[in-house]
Write a sequence for this structure.
């Protein structure tokens, strides 16, 4: 998962925890319960795919090295017997095919040693009766066959894991998108019914809905804007950040979300002035600062203009 996806998942887990700690909400609202149940299923699936996404090679390299060494030893023994048999019987073509130095066998690539072993198995089975006096038994041919197959299967593991990781990555992206839509279009609207009757609880829910990606972006400012009277989040608030960029002053402008959230990324170290403006509300100016490696949070309340 990307850092931001982890931040999104953490938000979802916080929302799930919120409903676990407030079970009465689901008891009295069946629609909300259905939506929260779906949320829980999605979170569990995301967590499952996140585990699959982790490509763990722990011990694989050592296992592969050991398997190749065992296969090489078996190949060398049967190859020596076949070469001796070919020499005694004048089968020069057979001798030339398998007259390979031991050191070269060990240096073969994964694919080459598997193909060589398969060719060796075919030859050993073809001459299995003649090879008995040369200490090539049916059991030894079976061992070579099994070790060749085992090593071939071992080579497929990284490719299978990469495929699983790719599928998991795609599923995580899809599930996060679906879950965000579930929150935005369903659960957020379900919770609106508690905005006035359970204001504190509703505001707590809004806090859980924030995505804290402070670990993914350096030198940022983040916060929430609410109405000073009703404490409800204010959307479309114009938030201007003015700061020094070199010798000159620079400005970035954002607009708050439906949850009253805003964020600025990549603001340089130093003093910064935030200006909050919304029609029918008093303009608010806040002096703050950004410090390297730290995340600055600014939560404000806007006072509604008396003349409105």
């Amino acid at each position: 998962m990307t850092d931001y996806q982890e931040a999104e998942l953490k938000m979802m887990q916080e929302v799930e925890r919120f409903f676990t700690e407030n079970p009465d909400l689901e008891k009295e609202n069946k629609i909300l319960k259905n939506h929260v149940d779906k949320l829980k299923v999605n979170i569990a699936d995301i967590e499952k795919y996140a585990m699959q996404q982790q490509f763990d090679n722990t011990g694989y390299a050592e296992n592969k090295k050991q398997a190749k060494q065992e296969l090489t030893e078996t190949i060398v023994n049967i190859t020596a017997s076949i070469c001796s048999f070919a020499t005694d019987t004048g089968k020069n073509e057979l001798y030339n095919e398998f007259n390979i130095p031991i050191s070269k066998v060990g240096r073969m690539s994964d694919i080459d040693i598997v193909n060589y072993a398969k060719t060796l198995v075919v030859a050993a089975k073809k001459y299995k009766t003649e090879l008995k006096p040369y200490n090539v038994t049916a059991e030894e041919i079976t061992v070579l066959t099994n070790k060749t197959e085992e090593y071939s299967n071992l080579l497929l593991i990284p490719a299978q894991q990469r495929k699983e990781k790719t599928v998991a990555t795609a599923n995580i992206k899809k599930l996060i998108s679906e879950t965000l839509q579930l929150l935005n279009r369903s659960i957020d609207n379900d919770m609106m019914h508690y905005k006035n009757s359970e204001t504190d609880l509703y505001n707590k829910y809004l806090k859980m809905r924030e995505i804290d990606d402070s670990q993914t972006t350096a030198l940022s400012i983040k916060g929430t804007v609410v109405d000073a009277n009703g404490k409800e989040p204010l959307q479309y608030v114009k938030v201007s950040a003015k700061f020094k960029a070199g010798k000159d002053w620079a400005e970035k402008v954002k607009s708050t979300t439906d949850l009253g959230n805003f964020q600025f990324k990549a603001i340089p170290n130093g003093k910064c002035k935030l200006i909050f403006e919304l029609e029918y509300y008093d303009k608010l100016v806040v002096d703050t600062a950004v410090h390297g490696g730290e995340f600055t949070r600014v939560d404000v309340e806007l006072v509604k203009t008396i003349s409105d």
Summary: The domain at 217-308 is CATH 2.60.40.1120 (Immunoglobulin-like). Residues 97 and 207 are 73 Å apart (CA to CA).
